[in-house]
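[Discussion] Sanity-checking designs against the backbone

I'm trying to build intuition for which residues belong where. Below is a structure token string of 489 positions. I'd appreciate it if someone posts a full sequence so I can compare it with mine line by line.
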């Protein structure tokens, strides 16, 4: 095929019925460019809102990014219909069986499995960067005793960034991480080592502050997850070592959670990073996004749901309430997977290993009954709602004795790796970084003139004016105790 015929075959022909014009839009990598639609403009029809900006070309609407590709990536591939997940081409099942979280981290960030020597250097850098400044203790102690650990961790990443002015493009110049020369790459990698190395330390500190325990210095000679468990659980015993079974189980869970391409939190990291802010702020933003119950908070939500169901015989009634839209079946459904999440099978196996050490979780029977009923139920089958990674992971964390609100932290710590892999890739992509600035469809008021306050008619109604709030600070006792007479002085 000649060049022009070939390019015509790889294109989309669009006819604008408003103007009769035809447009050829190239298809590259099975993708069409949204900006190509800007050329498809038409005169504004009589009576049409000027805010539609019809004469400036078509916009592409995609609420919730259902079918919009925002970046080219070489990191993770998911086929949601076939239940396939690959990191840099390697199937997740092979990595879970043969690799470790840190080796997989190297793979995700640098694109290939490391040689023994490369791995040794990487591991030593990460572990070397696990210690935080002594002042960090004061930061952790400033939280209230019942602060959610995700609130602590999110703030901690941002706090951490305040120590490293050399990693801040606002202070050092915009091209700090985009230059791609030796110094820029070395600076970038140092921040990556710090963020991965200190993620476990910050998370363990968030854990210990909630338990009322003093902090411990990260140990030497343990694996990444071994060191994390040590930092949470060591209470002064001599030669303390975490259980190797639990250490390996957590390592597998970390590896499975390390990346999942452009999920909400990774997108948040890239969106935030696209303003060229420092990586600590971008990671803090990702952490905040992960915390939501539709994303990384789902593992916590699953356990709360199982507790509320109580026992297997209550499962049918619970599922009916889900179908009546009164409840959500947490741990089921996924934007990308329309079949079982491949990670859920590996997690299920890991759970059995953990239960051999910890004993079976009392919620397991309810979880099994719920799982078995839901996967056969027409409501879920029709909507292709299958168990996701969070359905089982919470049960393992619970069996390992972690408090419920710590579960999202156990997701965030390994996901730091994926966020950083994507952030690094974006910083180094050819053509530089473009700020992520989506468009909106404005459907609000047209132009109107200011009305002086005396002439305004009050607008009332729910959502249109502030809803009256209860002032919880003023109790009956404080109201009674307040002196309302005149003070004689
Ligand atoms: N329980 C009940 N109904 C559900 C569920 C669920 N868990 N998930 C989706 N549905 C229904 C929706 O109501 C919708 O029904 P409709 O077509 O009749 O209106 C249909 O299935 C399609 O669902 P969407 O909401 O369009 O799917 P979307 O891709 O936007 O959402 C999400 C995906 C957020 C994960 C959703 O499935 C959900 O809320 N699941 C529960 C929370 C959860 O487990 N999150 C973890 C995700 S994995 C992760 O972050 C690691």
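Best answer:
Here's mine. Compare freely.
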């Amino acid at each position: 095929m000649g060049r022009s015929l070939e390019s015509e075959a790889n294109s989309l022909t669009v006819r604008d019925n408003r103007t009769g014009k035809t447009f050829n839009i190239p298809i590259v990598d099975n993708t069409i460019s949204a900006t190509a639609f800007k050329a498809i403009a038409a005169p504004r029809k009589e009576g049409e809102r000027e805010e539609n900006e019809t004469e400036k070309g078509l916009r592409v609407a995609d609420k919730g990014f259902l079918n919009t590709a925002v970046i080219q990536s070489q990191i993770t591939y998911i086929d949601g219909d076939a239940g396939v997940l690959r990191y840099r081409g390697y199937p997740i099942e092979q990595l879970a069986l043969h690799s470790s979280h840190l080796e997989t981290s190297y793979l995700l960030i640098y694109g290939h499995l490391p040689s023994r020597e490369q791995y040794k250097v990487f591991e030593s850098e990460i572990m070397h960067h696990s210690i935080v400044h002594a002042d960090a203790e004061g930061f952790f102690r400033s939280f209230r005793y019942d602060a959610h650990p995700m609130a602590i961790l999110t703030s901690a990443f941002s706090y951490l960034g305040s120590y490293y002015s050399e990693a801040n493009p606002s202070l050092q110049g915009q091209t700090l991480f985009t230059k791609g020369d030796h110094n820029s790459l070395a600076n970038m990698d140092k921040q990556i080592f710090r963020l991965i190395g200190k993620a476990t330390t910050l998370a363990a500190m968030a854990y210990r502050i909630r338990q009322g325990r003093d902090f411990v210095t990260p140990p030497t000679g343990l694996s990444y997850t071994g060191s994390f468990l040590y930092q949470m659980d060591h209470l002064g015993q001599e030669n303390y070592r975490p259980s190797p079974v639990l250490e390996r189980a957590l390592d597998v869970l970390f590896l499975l959670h390390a990346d999942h391409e452009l999920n909400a939190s990774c997108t948040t990291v890239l969106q935030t990073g696209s303003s060229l802010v420092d990586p600590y702020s971008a990671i803090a933003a990702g952490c905040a996004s992960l915390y939501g119950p539709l994303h990384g908070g789902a593992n916590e939500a699953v356990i709360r749901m199982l507790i509320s169901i109580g026992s297997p015989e209550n499962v049918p009634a619970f599922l009916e309430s889900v179908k009546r839209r009164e409840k959500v079946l947490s741990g089921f459904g996924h934007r990308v997977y329309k079949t079982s999440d491949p990670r859920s099978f590996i997690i299920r196996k890991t759970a059995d290993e953990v239960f051999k050490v910890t004993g079976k979780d009392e919620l397991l029977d309810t979880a099994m009954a719920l799982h078995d009923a839901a996967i056969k139920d027409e409501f879920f089958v029709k909507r292709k709602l299958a168990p996701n990674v969070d359905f089982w992971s919470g049960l393992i964390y619970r069996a390992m004795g972690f408090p419920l609100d710590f579960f999202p932290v156990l997701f965030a710590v390994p996901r730091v790796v994926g966020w950083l892999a994507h952030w690094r890739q974006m910083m180094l992509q050819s053509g530089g970084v473009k700020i992520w600035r989506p468009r909106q469809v404005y459907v609000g008021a047209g132009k109107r003139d200011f009305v002086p306050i005396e002439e305004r008619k009050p607008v009332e109604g729910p959502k249109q004016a502030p809803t009256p709030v209860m002032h919880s600070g003023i109790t009956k006792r404080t109201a009674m105790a307040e002196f309302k007479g005149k003070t004689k002085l």
